[in-house]
C-alpha cells in the first residue's frame, strides 16, 4: 500500500470529526493517545459520550450497537435499570469501607452456589489480580515454581500472564513444545524460564509436556475459551487431559474464567463438566464496575485465611468494595439461566449470519466462538488454536482493521480484533442489524480486498 490515506480511513474520519479532534488532545496526555492498549485502534478510537442498553452514542452523535460490551464484561449492556438503582443507593451510603459488608457476602453466596468447585472465594479488583493470586496460591500450596500456560492464552497485564500471547510464525517454535516468548522488552528472563508453554487443544502433546516438567510445575492455567486469540473453545478432551495429568502429578489446575464465565450459569467448567482446583473470575460479576475474584477448594483457599500462621498475602485496597458489590449482585441475579441461553442463541444466529455474509461476499472468513462469544477470523475454517488465529491475522494484513472501521460506520462496534459478544439488552433485531452491517461492509470492501489482499478472495 502507498502512504496515501486509505479511502476507508478517510470515510471513517469524515464520520467521526469530533472523535478525531479529541484524539489530538489525547495524544498530548496519553502515550499514543490512549490509556488502554486493548481499546486502541488506528487511526483513532471513537470517543463515546453516553450509552444505554446496547446502544453507544459517540461524541459526533452517531448511534452504534455495542457488540464489544467492554471486552465481554457488560452482560446486560449499559445502564441496566436495576444496576443503576442499586449503585445510586449504594454511592449515597459510601463506596468502600475497608470492612465487611452484607452485599459482599450475598454476591459470594450467589457465585459459590452457581459454581460448585468454588467452595470459598476472595474478591479482587481485577482479573489480573485474580490470576496473580491463583498463581501465588498454587506456588504456596505445592512449593514449586514453574507455571504452565497455553500458547496464545491471556491472563492479565503482567509478564507471566502474557508469555507467548502472540505466537508469531517466525519465533513460536515447534507445536510440540512452543517457545516461551516475551510480548515486549519488559520481560525478565526468569519469567520466561518459569513459564512452560503448552499448545492449545492438543491433548497428547499437553500430557507429554506435563510429564516432562511435572516435578517443577505448581499450576496449569488455562482459559476454557481462548479469549484474546479468536474466542477458540477448548475441546472437552483437551481440558480432560489437563485435569487428569494435573491430578496425577499433584499440580493445581486453574481455569481462567474471566471471560468464559458468561457461557453457562456455572461457567465453562459446568458446560464442559470438568472441575478445576481454582477458578479466576472477573468482568461480568462486577456488573460493569472493576472486579475480579478467585475461588476454589476450601483446602486451597484457606491459604489466604488471615487466621493461618503464614497466609498468602492478599491485600488490595478496592477488593470487595461496596459499590462494585452493589452493581455485581443485581447483575448476576438478572443473569439467570433463561437469559444466558437467550444470549447464547442470539450469538449462534449472529455466527450463522456472519458466515453466510462471508460466503456471499466471496471473501475468506468465518465467525467462530461459543455461547455469547464470537470472533471473526480470515480463514476458511474455525481456529483450533492461537496459531490458526495468528495465521489468519497475517494473511489478512490490514483488511481486519478496514472491516472494523467500516462496521463502525455501519453502526456496529466490536473489538478491533473483530470480537463480538451479545448482551441481554439485545434481541433478534440487533442481530439482524449486525448481519446486514457485515453484508454491507464486505461489499464495500470487496474491491479493496481484490486489489490489496487477493489471497482473501474466494
Ligand atoms: C481471560 C482473561 N484473564 C484475565 C484478564 C485480566 O482481567 P483484567 O483486565 O480485569 O485485569 C482478562 C482481561 O481481558 C482476560 O480476558
List keywords for this structure.
Aspartate Aminotransferase, domain 1, 458 residues, 2 domains, four-stranded mixed β-sheet, alpha/beta, Aspartate Aminotransferase, domain 2, binds pyridoxal-5'-phosphate
Descriptive notes:
The two termini are 21 Å apart. The longest helix has 25 residues, at 337-361. A seven-stranded mixed beta sheet has the order 4-12-11-10-7-5-6, sandwiched between helices. Strands 1-2-3-15 form a four-stranded mixed beta sheet. It is α/β, with parallel strands linked by helices and 458 residues long. It has two domains: 7-75 and 336-456, Alpha-Beta Complex (Aspartate Aminotransferase, domain 1); 81-334, Aspartate Aminotransferase, domain 2, CATH 3.40.640.10. It is globular, with a radius of gyration of 22 Å. The protein is 42% helix and 15% strand. The chain is built from 17 helices and 16 strands.
Amino acid at each position: 500500500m502507498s502512504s496515501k490515506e486509505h479511502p476507508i480511513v478517510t470515510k471513517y474520519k469524515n464520520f467521526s470529526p469530533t472523535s478525531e479532534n479529541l484524539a489530538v488532545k489525547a495524544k498530548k496526555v496519553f502515550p499514543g493517545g490512549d490509556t488502554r492498549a486493548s481499546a486502541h485502534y488506528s487511526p483513532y478510537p471513537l470517543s463515546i459520550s453516553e450509552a444505554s442498553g446496547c446502544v453507544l452514542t459517540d461524541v459526533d452523535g452517531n448511534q452504534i450497537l455495542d457488540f464489544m460490551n467492554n471486552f465481554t464484561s457488560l452482560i446486560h449492556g449499559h445502564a441496566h435499570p436495576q444496576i443503576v438503582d442499586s449503585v445510586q443507593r449504594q454511592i449515597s451510603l459510601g463506596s468502600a469501607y475497608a470492612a465487611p459488608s452484607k452485599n459482599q457476602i450475598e454476591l459470594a453466596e450467589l457465585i459459590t452456589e452457581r459454581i460448585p468447585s468454588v467452595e470459598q472465594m476472595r474478591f479482587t479488583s481485577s482479573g489480573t489480580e485474580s490470576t496473580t493470586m491463583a498463581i501465588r496460591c498454587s506456588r504456596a500450596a505445592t512449593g514449586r515454581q514453574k507455571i504452565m500456560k497455553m500458547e496464545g492464552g491471556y491472563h492479565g497485564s503482567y509478564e507471566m500472564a502474557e508469555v507467548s500471547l502472540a505466537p508469531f510464525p517466525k519465533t513460536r517454535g515447534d507445536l510440540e513444545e512452543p517457545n516461551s516468548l516475551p510480548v515486549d522488552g519488559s520481560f525478565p528472563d526468569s519469567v520466561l524460564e518459569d513459564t512452560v508453554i503448552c499448545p492449545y487443544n492438543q491433548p497428547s502433546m499437553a500430557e507429554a509436556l506435563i510429564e516432562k516438567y511435572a516435578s517443577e510445575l505448581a499450576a496449569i492455567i488455562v482459559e476454557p475459551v481462548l479469549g484474546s486469540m479468536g474466542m477458540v473453545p477448548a475441546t472437552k478432551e483437551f481440558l480432560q487431559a489437563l485435569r487428569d495429568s494435573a491430578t496425577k502429578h499433584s499440580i493445581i489446575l486453574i481455569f481462567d474464567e474471566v471471560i468464559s464465565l458468561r457461557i453457562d450459569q456455572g461457567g465453562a467448567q459446568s458446560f464442559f463438566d470438568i472441575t478445576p482446583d481454582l477458578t479466576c473470575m472477573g468482568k461480568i460479576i462486577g456488573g460493569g464496575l472493576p472486579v475480579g475474584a478467585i475461588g476454589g477448594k476450601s483446602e486451597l483457599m484457606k491459604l489466604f485465611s488471615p487466621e493461618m500462621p503464614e497466609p498468602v498475602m492478599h491485600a488490595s485496597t478496592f477488593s470487595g468494595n461496596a459499590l462494585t458489590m452493589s452493581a455485581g449482585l443485581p447483575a448476576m441475579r438478572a443473569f439467570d439461566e433463561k437469559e444466558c441461553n437467550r444470549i447464547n442463541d442470539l450469538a449462534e444466529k449472529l455466527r450463522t449470519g456472519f458466515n453466510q455474509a462471508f460466503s456471499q461476499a466471496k471473501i475468506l472468513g468465518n465467525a467462530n466462538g461459543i455461547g455469547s462469544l464470537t470472533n471473526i477470523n480470515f480463514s476458511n475454517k474455525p481456529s483450533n488454536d492461537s496459531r490458526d488465529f495468528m495465521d489468519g491475522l497475517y494473511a489478512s494484513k490490514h483488511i481486519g482493521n478496514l472491516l472494523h472501521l467500516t462496521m463502525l460506520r455501519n453502526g456496529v462496534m466490536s473489538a478491533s480484533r473483530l470480537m463480538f459478544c451479545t448482551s441481554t439488552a439485545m434481541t433478534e433485531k440487533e442481530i439482524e442489524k449486525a448481519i446486514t452491517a457485515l453484508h454491507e461492509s464486505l461489499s464495500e470492501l470487496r474491491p479493496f480486498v481484490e486489489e490489496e489482499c487477493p489471497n482473501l478472495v474466494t
